[in-house]
Amino acid sequence: MIQIYADNALVYDSRLAEYALQSLTLSRGLNVGGTAVITMPPHHPAYDAFVAFRTIVEVYKDGNLRFRGRALPPADDFYNMRTVTCEGERCFFQDAVSRPYLYQDSPAMIFAELLHAYNSQVEAFKQFKLGTVTVTDPNDYIRLESEAPESILDTINKLVERCGGYIVFTTDEDGARVANWYEELGYRSGQVIDFGSNLLNFSRNSANTSLATGIYPLGAVDETTGERVTIESVNEGVDYLIDTEAQSLRGTIIKSVVWDDVTIPSNLLQKAQQWLAQNRVIVTALELSALDLSYMDKTIDSFDVGDLIRVRSKPHQVDEEFQLTTLNEDLLNPANSTIALGKERRTLTSADVAGDDKSLSEMHKIQEIVKADYTLNIAQAIEQTEQRLTSLIEQTAEAIRTEVSESAVTQDQVTELISTSMTQLSDSFTFQFTELRATVDANDAEMREQFQLFEKYIRFENGNIILGEKGSELTLRQKNDRISFLDGGAEVAYFSNKQLVVLDGHFLHSLRIGPVAFIPRENGNISLTKVGE
């Protein structure tokens, strides 16, 4: 069940025909506002119900809130089909201004101050309560500043980029919206993504634009000396760090990094060590897309943004958890819905792309084992996939034959085959119905022989319809102006212009015309006799 509310008024319910929509899609992701796109016909009851930037839109699926945001200006096409695009509630933070600022506090306190500044500038229906904050800093102190005004959203994005974590909106017991800042989203989905089942695409890409084997760190400016803090006094008289293992592999690559909020050399050394540990490695990004099987089976755990999902793909040497980063839902056509998952692997050699800690030689061994063990499984998987949807086109000198078949798995796991076969000759077109036969074969074996008695062909030749089993002497041909009876291909009778025309007639008892009839006598003569009205 899908429902849409506009300012708490019901404007769509999937159970009500008069509320039917042309389309309804949601796009959501980690730390983004997300969108909902609603397309409705001109006669829809809610056609004029959306006020741009003011109407709060809520989309529910099976009673669960899947999207909350506000309507943007609508767009109408040539046929007056109206499309209303809505932006997610995270975008509300754009409506308030963060004046030139200097924050020097813990992440939680800065987030609380930003939320207070936002709420003081906007209406109640766009305000958020401060929820749970689990994001921390090793020193529980960061410096965030700007000499120019900016939107509260820009400031929050800077804070999240600096400290990590995810902004998540929830509803409290009083119905108020709450803004939370979580370091991790720990929900593990019960649905698994498997190669050959619901895995659509997989890719890996190794890159690291900030790769370094050494760092020259600088802290805040010392008010007494006017110079920036360095690590020289706490690093044996050296003002830089080198990772010897990474240097021996890739050479010397030193980069300078400035922390304006660090005033103590020991803290600067700690941050420099952490930065170098993160940037000495090759970052391998693993990305994949998949289908959400819960649309076909309500007993399967559905996906949501931020979920940890186990992915198993033997050809890609992957069996680990990925985080759902993007969710695109087509609520009216669930088969079109997709998800995207992402993960980063950081290794010194870039050889560890499968998520384990084995050496490169061990990875080669695994690859050889997979190749030897999985060749048969790959072939079987491909064969099974081809059996689900096949299309065959055969062309000869006499005819072109097209056959399409599809295997569909129903919710009770019963597989039925639906197929059609079309044959095009130079002067005719034959269409064979096999769907009903396939259904009978799959569900009632005892009816197979019975059904063969009813199997017929419908043939189309030169704009005419011919009924009758191919090869039969007697057939019926329907034209635009007459229905003909054929015997051995020759027309022996036809209906046309409200008249029946028969080439030869054989009457065993009588021939009646209106109130009279020709009735044979015992002596063989024929007399015209009145037989009544």
Summarize the structure in words.
The structure is a single chain. With 533 residues, the chain is of the alpha+beta class. It folds into six domains: 2-91; 96-182, Phage tail protein beta-alpha-beta fold (3-Layer(bab) Sandwich), CATH 3.55.50; 193-206 and 283-357; 214-280, no CATH class; 390-499, no CATH class; 503-530, no CATH class. The strands form seven sheets. Strands 1, 2, 3, 4, 5, 6, 7, 8, 16, 17, 21, 22, 23 and 24 form a 14-stranded mixed sheet that branches. A hairpin with a 6-residue loop joins strand 30 (464-467) and strand 31 (474-478). The model is unreliable at 351-376, 381-390, 406-418 and 433-455 (pLDDT under 50).
Summarize this structure briefly.
The chain is α+β, with helices and mostly antiparallel strands. It contains seven helices and 37 strands.
Number of helices: 7
Radius of gyration: 37 Å
Biggest beta sheet attributes: 14 strands, mixed
Helical proportion, percent range: 10-25%
Average pLDDT value?
78
Strand content: 35-45%
Span of the ends, CA to CA: 65 Å
The backbone outline, from C-alpha atoms, is elongated
DSSP strand count: 37
The tally of structural domains comes to 6
Unreliable segments of 5+ consecutive residues: 351-376, 381-390, 406-418, 433-455
The helix-and-strand class reads: alpha+beta
